[in-house]
Structure formats: structure tokens, C-alpha cells
Known about the structure:
The structure is a single chain. This protein has helices spanning about 5-20, 25-30, 30-45, 50-55, 65-80, 95-120, 125-135, 140-150, 155-180, 195-225, 230-240, 240-265, 265-290, 295-310, 310-325, 330-355; strands at about 60, 65. By secondary structure, it is mainly alpha-helical. It has a single domain, classed as Na+/H+ antiporter like fold, CATH 1.20.1530. The protein has a two-stranded antiparallel ribbon with strand order 1-2. Helix 12 (about 240-265) packs across helix 16.
Amino acid sequence: MAPVQLVLRGQRNRLLLMATAKLSILDRGLTLWIALAMGLGLLLGRFAPGLAQALAGWSIGSTSIPIAIGLIAMMIPPFARVKPRELPKVFADPKALGMSILLNWIVGPVLMFGLAWLFLSDSPELFAGLVLVGLARCIAMVVVWNQLAGGSAEAAAGLVAFNSIFQVFTYGGYAWLFLTVVAPRVGLPAQTISVSMGQVASSVALYLGLPFVLGLGIRWAIVHRQGEAVAARFNAKFGPVTLIALLFTIVVLFALQGHRILAEPFQVVRVAVPLILYFAVMFTAAWFFSRRLGMDYGRTVTQAFTSASNNFELAIAVAIGSFGLTSGAAFAATIGPLVEVPVMVALVQVALKLRARKVGV
């Protein structure tokens, strides 16, 4: 091997060691902790059905209170890192914003519809549930994946906010278009979807608006009284709350569905395969086009995760409201986050390895 290559490899190894040394125990063992949380949730759902029933009972309408608490808690620390004065820069590049719109609102929904038709055309309800997931764009967990992969906090906040507002006005129309108009043209029955702008807006307000206001409020209070340096130290100590809340949410999610997952593994696999393909294709496409547009690593990561992630809270609520709690559509929508979590953790590792291989990316 040439001396130059040896030097570069040594430099990459030193960077990896330095980065690893700065990570907390939670960060370094993230994959293991998430796997344990998933396993614990499954065991609780299978062998402690009373707990799962209690968790299911703690809800308001279709909103699970434990899941809502976990999601809001995990999003506050990333939003506390956002510098409001940097937010306008997110929209200063029309090409980047246009690419985000194209991937999120044309490519993503069409791709999910195609994959759902390809794999689930014999089960209209599973098909509908998967389509509803594809139509619900990123809102909550994407902020966590973006932070773990070292993406831009400001870009994530800006794009998630933009997609969420866009979603309020378009989700109902998109659901009607794909499931009532387009589905019959590919041999599937037309589905009647019950979703209002108010329902979408309430989901956005709860899972985006509330943690955004709380996170920025915390940052403003610290910076206003003690300055940026203290805010940075606070964020470093506050950051683990995100991973703790994430693990809590995963345990609750898998506990709620543990019995059904173990009882219907074939159905889970049927829904999981198109979801995995969807996440992989969207992430890869966004990464490729972001690099072609000359974006740096932070913005590339943000574009990739905002394009690949979905608002499963909204999809589940609409599926339950339109098809019923025990329907195939609700089951498919619920499988969404159960598949998204391990896939996104894997994509976080992919992003970090790409950064390590290309110094200065």
C-alpha cells in the first residue's frame, strides 16, 4: 500500500477514535440499547398483556399518552440546539428546497404507493395502511436521527416545519387521490378516508409545535441570561434525554404490538419488506442528489433523513379513524415505526461511516 494511503487510513482511524471517545455510553452502544429496548417491548407485550392493555388505555382519542410523552421529550434537546438566526439560511438555496419538495411530495408518495401495490395488492387494507404512511411526511423521529448522524439542526428544524405545514393542507387531498382515485385504476377497491385539516394540524402542533417551542424557549432563556457558551454546555448534558426518551418510546411501541407481532410474523414481514426498500431508496436518492448539488455533510444528512422518514403518528391516527383499531390498515401503519427504528439506526451508522471515509465531507 502506498505511503499516502497509509497516512490517510491512519488519519481516518484517529478521527474515528476521537469521535468515539467523545460519545457517551448511550451513544456508543446505541444499536445494542435499541435492540434490547425492542426485545424488552416484545417480551412485555407477549408475557405481560395486562401492561400492554394499560398502556393502550392511556390515550386520548387515537393519541397514546405514553408515546406522545416519549416523542415530545426526545425532540426537545435537538430543538434546544437550534440557532434561530440560522433558520432563514435553510430556505436561501432554492435548489435544495426544491429537491426536498420533489422527494417528499412526489417521489416519496409515488414510491410507497408502487411498493404497496407490488407487495400488498392482495390485501387492500394493508395496502391502504402502507400508502397512508408514505403520504405522512417527516415530523418527529427524523430530528433524532438527524442529531445522531451529525446533521444540521437548523436545516432539520426548517425542513420539518415546512413539510409539516405543507402536510396540513395536502394530506387529506393526497389520501383521497391515491386511495380513492388512483387505487381503482390499478385493480384495487376505492377506499374512503376520514381525515380533516384539523386532525393533521393537531398532530403537527403536538409533535412538532410543542417541542419546538419548548426547545427554543429553553435555549433563549439560557443564552439570554448566561450566553452561548453556557447554552452549549447545557446542550451537551441535556442531549442524553433524547436517547433515553427514544428507548422508552421503543419499549412502549413494541409492548403495544408485541402480541400481534409474534402472532402474525408473516404479515409483519410482508409489510416490513416494502418499508425497508422505501427507506433505503429514499435515503440513497436524497444523499446522491444532495452531494450533486454541492451540499456539505450536515445538510446532506438532513436532506436524506427528512426524505426517508415518515410521520407515523398521523398515519396511525388516520388508519384507525378510517378503518378501525383492529383493521389491517391500522396494523400496517403501526408496523411503520417498528421497522423505521432499526432501519434508521442502521442508516445513521452508514452516514457516520461515509463521513469518516471522506475527511471534510
